[in-house]
Amino acid sequence: MKDNTCTQREFLNGAKIGGDQPFFLISGPCVMENRDLLDRVCAEMIEICGELKIPYVFKSSFDKANRSSVNSYRGPGLSEGIKNLEYIKNKYNVPVLTDIHETHQIGPLKDVLDIYQIPAFLCRQTDLIAESAKTGKWVNVKKGQFLAPADTRHIAVKMKESGNDKVLVTERGTSFGYGNLVFDGRAVPIIHGFDIPVIFDATHSAQLPGAAGNSTGGQREFIPSILRSAVSLGIEGIFMEVHPDPDKALSDATTQYPLSQIKSLLKEMIALDRYVKKEILSTANHS
């Protein structure tokens, strides 16, 4: 599409995405360590996003099934995960998202989830995409580190052929040799070309896969820079994992963003987002 945006459409809780609409935010702790953590993060993020007028979706994983080591903490499991999501959703009246890894997890989550998330390593799993689509819910598919941006069109086709066009694609960096990820900005206009809303995963894009030996490393210091690059391209959403004390997190300790610093970063992104989308659409209207 010439203006490098996707078609404006209804999203969650009356929010709209696409066109000149502001970005929304998917954020929360990487994994469900305990309910107190979920409570604290969600409460603070709702306050921040309410003040900044950012549509907010809470995210946390009940199972990190792709951990580097078999000994790494994976999460509380599906049953406890559902209880945690129900608690957060009911207490804060907020949309919720979590990862799924197998089709049998889809049904039990249907009554609580607003968005199913398919991890990057599973982005080509047809059954997982199709069965998620059949719920009628939004489905956020992480673009695999190995996947060319143009190949995301197949994800959208699988969704539509399953009777659902509520698809989001999250860009989270591309493998660059061994143990390194690079954000290729060309991905955003390419994916927009298929009229697919683009989310940018600022925290996972800063990972260094396998760099810590038995776990993934990362470079948190580059998150603001790569996020600026993505927002400057007119994305529809931002994905960021946050934690009150990232260095003590049980998963992705090197890339979760400090909860105390997220507000100032989001303020900067709002200003950039407003400027960029105004310019994109203005240029398109005069071309």
Automatic annotation (TrEMBL):
Q: In which pathway does it act?
A: Carbohydrate biosynthesis; 3-deoxy-D-manno-octulosonate biosynthesis; 3-deoxy-D-manno-octulosonate from D-ribulose 5-phosphate: step 2/3; Bacterial outer membrane biogenesis; lipopolysaccharide biosynthesis
Q: Where in the cell is it found?
A: Cytoplasm
Q: Which GO CC annotations does the UniProt entry carry?
A: cytoplasm
Instruction: Say yes or no: keyword Cytoplasm present.
Output: yes
Q: Which reaction does it catalyse?
A: D-arabinose 5-phosphate + phosphoenolpyruvate + H2O = 3-deoxy-alpha-D-manno-2-octulosonate-8-phosphate + phosphate
Listed EC numbers:
2.5.1.55
Q: Report the Gene3D superfamilies cross-referenced here.
A: Aldolase class I (3.20.20.70)
- List the Gene Ontology MF annotations in alphabetical order: 3-deoxy-8-phosphooctulonate synthase activity
Q: Which keywords fit this entry according to its UniProt record?
A: Cytoplasm, Lipopolysaccharide biosynthesis, Transferase
Q: Would the keyword Transferase be found if you checked this record's keyword annotation? A: yes
Q: Which residues form the DAHP synthetase I/KDSA domain?
A: 14-276
Cite the Pfam families for this sequence: DAHP_synth_1
Stored InterPro entries: Aldolase_TIM, DAHP1/KDSA, KDO8P_synthase
Chief place of localization: cytoplasm
Set out the biological process GO terms recorded for this chain's protein. keto-3-deoxy-D-manno-octulosonic acid biosynthetic process
The family database entries (PANTHER family) matched by this protein are listed as: PHOSPHO-2-DEHYDRO-3-DEOXYHEPTONATE ALDOLASE (PTHR21057)
Family under the similarity heading: Belongs to the KdsA family.
Protein name as catalogued? 2-dehydro-3-deoxyphosphooctonate aldolase
- Its source organism is Leptospira tipperaryensis
Q: What is the lineage of its organism?
A: Bacteria, Pseudomonadati, Spirochaetota, Spirochaetia, Leptospirales
